[in-house]
Design a protein that fits this description.
Blueprint lengths: L2 H12 L3 H9 L7 H9 L10 H16 L16 H11 L4 H10 L6 H7 L13 H15 L3
Helix pairs in contact: 1-8, 2-4, 4-5, 6-8
């Protein structure tokens, strides 16, 4: 799924503005340029260039720090590039403190049915024999369900 679309969806879900998005990215020690931030939200038709994997990785890590705070016990992990749909799901699960049943509930609320083994396959390491890549559809339904959960109106 396009990085810009994920960021826009999280922006809507949490009711954030451009400045707050930039602040979230800065929390993971990356200083986005004004043009990087504006490029995310100017691309309404999905035809323009997508955000870099580096920017997306820093946004997801910054979102974790924004929602949960920085941990003194655990040093920050290096960013993971490339950012795949599975990475997006994993980082959002951590940021929103979601368990497996929470994720299944969110997906069900958005109209997507998935069973426990299929879901756990999305969160496995890539070298695991039961790993499955997450498709764009799963991420879209997850973001839609997350929005329905956090912005019920």
């Amino acid at each position: 799924m396009r990085h810009n679309d994920v960021i826009k969806s999280i922006r809507y879900t949490l009711n954030l503005d451009d400045v707050e998005i930039a602040e979230i990215i800065k929390k993971s020690d990356y200083n986005p340029t004004r043009s990087e931030i504006t490029a995310i939200f100017e691309d309404d038709d999905g035809e323009g260039p997508d955000s870099s994997d580096e920017l997306m990785a820093h946004f997801l890590d910054g979102l974790i720090f924004h929602k949960r705070g920085k941990s003194d016990k655990h040093p920050p992990q290096p960013i993971q590039i490339p950012v795949t749909n599975n990475t997006v799901l994993k980082k959002l699960r951590v940021a929103f403190t979601l368990r497996e049943d929470d994720i299944m509930s969110i997906l069900k609320k958005a109209g997507f049915k998935i069973n426990s083994p299929e879901l756990s396959a999305l969160f496995r390491r890539e070298d695991h024999k039961n790993y499955r890549p997450a498709g764009d559809q799963v991420v879209r339904y997850f973001l839609r369900g997350l929005t329905m959960t956090h912005r019920p109106e």
